[in-house]
Amino acid sequence: MLASFSIPSWMRTGAEGLSPTGRAASVLAIWTGLGVAVAWLPVLETVWQFVGLALLVLAGGDLLLLRAIPSPGLSRRVGRALPQGVWSPVRLQVENGGKAVLRLRLHDLHPSEFAVQGLPRNLRLQPSARATLEYRLRPHRRGDFPMPGCDLALWSPLGLWRQRRTLALPDRLRVFPNFSEISRYTLLATHDQLAQLGVRRVQRRGVGAEFHQLREYRQGDGLRQVDWKATSRMRKLISREYEDARDQRLVFLLDCGRRMRHQDAGRGHLDEALNALLLLAYVAVRQGDAVGLMTYGGVRRWFAPRKEPSTVNRLLEAVYDLQPTLEASDPYSAARELFQAVPRRALVVIVTNSRDEDQGELEQAAALLRRRHLVVVADLRESVLDRSLERPIRDLKDALRFHSVQDWLGERSRHQERLRHIGVQALDLLPSQLPIALVNRYLAIKRSGAL
Q1: Vertex 346, ends 345 and 348: CA angle to 5°?
Q2: What would the pLDDT profile of 71-112 be if each residue is shown by its tens digit?
C-alpha cells in the first residue's frame, strides 16, 4: 500500500538561508577587476561607480524577487511498510504554483541510515507546471524512522542568490523484515515444489496423525495403512489417508540480548532469527496450529498463541522493530515466565546465540520447559569459526588458532549433547541455515506425532 502526503505551496518551516551563487561571485570579481583598472585609468572611475551601483540595484532586486517566490507544492508517495535490505521507490510530485520560472535543487530528508539512489535532483519548472520525481531507498535496519520534510535550494531569477528552504512533510517509515522467503515458500507450496527450498518430506509414523479420508492404495503405502473392511467391500486395495494433527501450539522464546548483535555477511543474528521465526509461523498457521512469542534479554514482549489467518501479520507488527540490546540474557527467568504463561503442551523453540558461560542457565531453562513442553534449542554460531578451520596452517600462530577453534567447537558440541540427554532437540546452526532447518524440524515433529 502507498501513503500520500502533501502540503500547500505557501507552507514553509525550518531554517531558511541565503547565499550568493557562483554567478554572483563571478560578477563581483569582474567589478573588482574594473576597480583595479581604475588605478591606471582614472577616467574609468565614474564608469566603475556606475557599474557598482547598477550591480547593487540588480542584486537587491534579484534578492527581493527570490524572497517573493512562493515555495512549490510538494507531495510524497511511499510504501507504508518497507522491507529491510531491499530497494523501495519513493515518488515526489513538485508543482510550481507561482508566475515565474522556478529553478531548484531538491533533497528529501530521508533517514541517514538508509542507502539512497537518485538524490539530490535539479529541476526547472515553468509557471503552473508539475513534475514527478522518483528515487530509491534501501533500509539496512528494522524499526520506525522519521522523514521530517524536504530540503529545497531555490535560485533567484537572475541566478545571483540561492535560498534554502525546508518544507515540512512529516512521515514515518516502518521497516519490516524482508518477507521474500515467505513469498517464495508460498509460490513453491502452490506448485508442490517444497524440495527446492530444502524442505524435506518425512515419513509419518506413530499415532500423532488424524484420519482424513479413504483412497485407493498407492505404491509405498504400508500394510498398517490399508483398510481391510473397505478393501473387501470394494474388492480392491483401499488405504487410509491421514493428516497431521491440528490445533497444536508453537511458541518461540527469542533471545534479544547482546549475543544476538553479531553480524554474518552483513546481516545481524537477530535479523536472521526474525526471518526464520516468521517463515515457521507462516508454515504453522497453514498447518492449523497456534503461534506465540516471548522475548527476553532486555526487550520483553509477549504475543499470546493464536491461529487466525491474520496471525503472521500481527506477529510481524509485534516484532518488526525489535533490536538486540547490550544486556546479558537470562534464559532461565524467561523460561519460568513462559512455563506459567503456557499451561498447555506446546512446541517451544528457543533461538539464541550462547557461549560456555551461558550454557548452565540455558540447560536449566530447557530442563524446566521440558517438564511440560517439547523443546527445540536453535543455537547460532558465527560463520567466521567455520572459515577459520578452512584456512591453511602455515605457522605456529595458525596452528594455535586452529586448535583453539576446534576446542571451542568441541566444548559447544558437548553442551549440545547434554541438552539432547535431557530430552531437548538441539540444533547447532549458522544464521543462514536457520529458516529452513526450523521448518524441517517442525514438519518432522508434526509427522512423527511427538507433539
Answers
A1: 135
A2: 889 999 988 788 888 899 999 999 988 888 889 999 999 988
Q: Supply angle C-alpha 97, 98, 101, rounded to 5.
A: 110
213-241 as b/e, with b when 16 or more CB fall inside 10 Å?
eeeeeeeebeeebebeeeeeeeeeebbbe
CA atoms of 78 and 444, how far apart (whole Å): 42
C-alpha distances out from residue 24 to 27, 30, 102, Å: 5, 10, 18
Closest-CA residue to 403 (of 391, 418, 414): 391
Give Dmax (Cα) for the chain: 127
Nearest to 102 by CA among 59, 150, 148, 162: 162
* 254-284 pLDDT, tens digit each: 999 988 988 887 788 998 899 889 889 988 8
Q: Which of 214, 268, 272, 211 is nearest to 245 (CA)?
A: 211
Q: ω into residue 120 within 30 of 0, thus cis?
A: yes
Q: How far is CA 230 from CA 213, 215, 221, 226, 227, in A?
A: 12, 10, 15, 9, 6
Kindly state the cell numbers that stand for 32. 573588482
pLDDT of residue 138: 92
At residue 375, the 3 state secondary structure works out as strand
Helix/strand/coil for 208: coil
pLDDT score, position 11: 36
Alpha carbon 326 to its chain centroid, in Å, reads 20
Distance CA 205, CA 35 (A): 100
Integer Cα distance of 221 and 240 in angstroms: 9
Write out residues in the chain with pLDDT < 50, as ranges.
1-15, 186-194, 196-197, 199-208, 244
Q: Directed axis angle between helix 269-286 and helix 434-448, to 10°? A: 30
pLDDT in tens, 204-256: 444 445 555 677 777 767 677 777 777 788 778 877 766 545 568 999 999 99
Question: How is residue 320 annotated by DSSP?
Answer: T
Question: Which DSSP state fits 218?
Answer: -
